[in-house]
Amino acid sequence: MYVPKHYQVDERWSKALIYSHPLAILMTNGVSVPFATHLPVVVPPHVREQFDAGFSLEGQTIFGHLNRANPHWEALQKGGPSTLVFHGKNSYISPTVYEVTPAAPTWNFTAVHLHGNIRVIRERESTLQVIRWTVDAFESEFGKNWDMGPSLGYFDRIVDGVGAFEFDIIGVDAMFKLSQEQPAEVQTRVVRSFGAGSACPHHAELGQMISQINQVEETGL
Asked: What is the mean pLDDT of residues 143-164?
């Protein structure tokens, strides 16, 4: 991914995006066209501890799973290079927000691409562990702390249809395009346009991120 210098950010923002938007696109080479599958990716507890302690994304191993009936699973059997694409909040920016002329519309967005090597998990118990990690992480972050205990028997019945994998991270591209190329006063207008009165439900969060990265005032949020 091409990332202009002024859209580069500290790696803590990449980690936060992966935590908050864990539905990634796994991309690997196919015979005629690339495979691309939307799937959940989990950072297991022991890796999350290292991330939170300041360890780099590179060199760490994260996990995911997909349906074994998906032809993509068969393509993964030999392992090799793959890319995980994570998308965060995004929005169209109208030139009316800038209050300057000439101007051009644009799109603000956040994205992280992880490049690495993938290995399928063949052991049944290891696949179940990936499922348990996934439930634990996502229930605490997005759910209502559902107790998986009574359903572990059901997990055991369906696990043979689950294709789990390890993903060793060897490179990171992160692009947080959040109006950094604009003057401070224009950045402030963008943040204000994403205030509580916006019809878009995720504008407030995006506006706060623009403010934090660009260090402009949050008046109107």
From this structure: 96
Q: Look at the block and give the residue holding tokens 């204000």.
A: 192
8 Å CB contact between 89 and 205 = yes
Q: Does the global pTM surpass 0.90?
A: yes
Cα-based angle 80, 115, 40 (whole degrees, multiple of 5): 90
Residue in this structure with the two tokens 């990690």, named with its chain if needed: 133
Number of domains in the chain: 1
Backbone φ, ψ for residue 29 (5° rounding)? -70, 140
Q: Which residue range is the domain that position 151 belongs to? A: 5-212
Q: What is the pLDDT of residue 30?
A: 86
Contacts (Cβ under 8 Å, ≥6 apart) of 109? 87, 88, 89, 90, 91, 175, 177
User: Residue 86: enclosing H or E segment and its boundaries?
Assistant: strand 80-93
CATH number, domain containing residue 57? 2.30.110.10
Helix (H, G, I), strand (E, B) or coil at 147: coil
Judge whether residue 176 has pLDDT over 80. yes
Q: What is the mean pLDDT of residues 186-194?
A: 90
